[in-house]
Fold:
Amino acid sequence: MAVKQLPSSRAVIALLAAALLLYPLILSDPFYRDVGVTFLLAAIAASAWNIVGGYAGQVSVGHSMFFGVGAYAPLLLYTRWGWPPIAGIPAGMVLAVGLALLIGAPTFRLTGHYFSMATIAVAELIRIFFGTWDTVGAAIGLQGPATARGWWDLTFRSELPYYYIFLAALAILLLTTAAIERRRFGFYLRAIKASERAARSLGVPVRQTKMQALALSAAFTSVAGSLYVVKTGFIAPDSGFGILISVQMVIVAALGGAGTLFGPLVGALTLVPLQTVTDNWFGGGGSGLTYILYGGIIVLIARFEPGGLFEMWHRLAPRLRKRAHA
Amino acid sequence: MVVVQVIVGGLLVGAIYALFSAGLTLIWGMMNFINFAHGEFVMLGMYVALLVVTWLGGGPAVFSVAAACALFVLGVGIYLSLVREVIRGPMLAQILSTFGLALLLRYTAFFVFSANFVTLPQTSLTGTIELGGIFLPTAQLVAGAVAIVLTISLHVLLTHTAVGSKLLAVAEDPAAAMLMGIRPDRMQALAWGLSAAAAGIAGALLATAYPWSPSVGETFGLIAFVVVALGGFGSVLGSLYAGLIVGLIQEVSAFWLGAIYKDIVVYGLFVALLWLRPQGLLGKA
Structure:
């Protein structure tokens, strides 16, 4: 399954890293920087989902539960005790891991579809529950510091600091995933995805591995939620736990290529500009059309290209190269 | 008396839950496949009813049958064009296919019909009936009764007819069924048609009694998951009992705790069920 690293791919990665580092400096218009930040957030969330949904093949459609926990934790600590929102990031991670262990224990006993169903239901349960819970602002949600009390509140007027903070988070996540790919844990995950029964018979600790993958994925997804809220300074049940948050993670990863290191990046690189364009074209009512587009793309990937754009490229690239030489 | 009214109301809405959930469980039983767009099928059934009433006129019998027919065709079409192919693919593709379909149908409905709540114009079922001191909307009573009859009919179809035997044979072992001269492909297409038709007619029945908007599909889809998990995967009769139970729990908790808590209680039940009996309350391990 593992695609062998070609010598040229190192150059591609270096080029990609340079492009990401320089992007907001070259395109300094706030609009482009905002698109960049949105892209990074989508890539972080999808890469986090990718650990359990892509590599281990356990398709969660309820990852918004971890995103939401990560988003609420900083603002809850801020509104209750005046903590700077950044201090809530580790708190969110701890809560998300706890939630992952709680959810994983029962749901991992059954087959893939069942896991997906269960994750949707749990995320919906939490969303509705937060909508009625006064401590977290019920349906209105929570608000962060309006004006910065110091740099540690991370409320910047410019998009630039957020861009680099998000980029650093993405880099850490991708390095972690790359390390997993090469280790025994990564081989366990792919074995489970290929066939759980075969993996178990070869001595892979299936339950334990799936739980670890879900916990790791949850922790990073929670970071995505925290980063989102540190930037926007506002969270409500729908923007934290809404089903479309989960859907976006799945579609971004699946479009690029679920279970590949750069798949979510490719997916975000394709989808975020596309979404920006449709939102601009269709104005305020654009979000509805955006989701029609999302639905259509998902159906088409599932039907014709289940491996995503990445796999399509691997299949088509040699043919194109041959044609170029001929 | 109020309590009796709440209980009867819960059972009547539960009967409709049972009908559309029976459709979901049929597909699961046939091919171990969860249709994430099933709630959207119910939603489409409601709009088909509305369109038939406003364009062609006709009573509940007409638009219910129209909804069933329209969704039957849609179900068969989706099987032939999408599900038949993705079922051979990886798990991710299977889940994504109907999930994407759900988004497509839901937001197309938002686009075409807007997010506003709508109701059917007055039908022959408008009004209330008094039954032994409790007052029930006629539409709810008729819809609930019809739903129970149809769910039982589906069960009888599966267990007591030749077509039902063929369906069950394919569910058991497609390869062996093929050796017996049954074409699994056709039976699975039929199952998708029946499943979608059950959802469509349930939608039309719901439309006679309740207002709705395009977002109801999500709620009904989740309710169908809960009912199927409670009744056991693949059991039509199980989903009848479970549908009635879920409807009852919903109405009773709405009455005692307040309307916003009714879904929390139902989804909470689902999560509790996952922990305690993942094979379903009535299902076999």
Q: What stands out?
A: Residues 40 and 166 of chain A are 6 Å apart (CA to CA). The two ends of chain A are 30 Å apart (CA to CA). The longest strand of chain A covers residues 142-143.
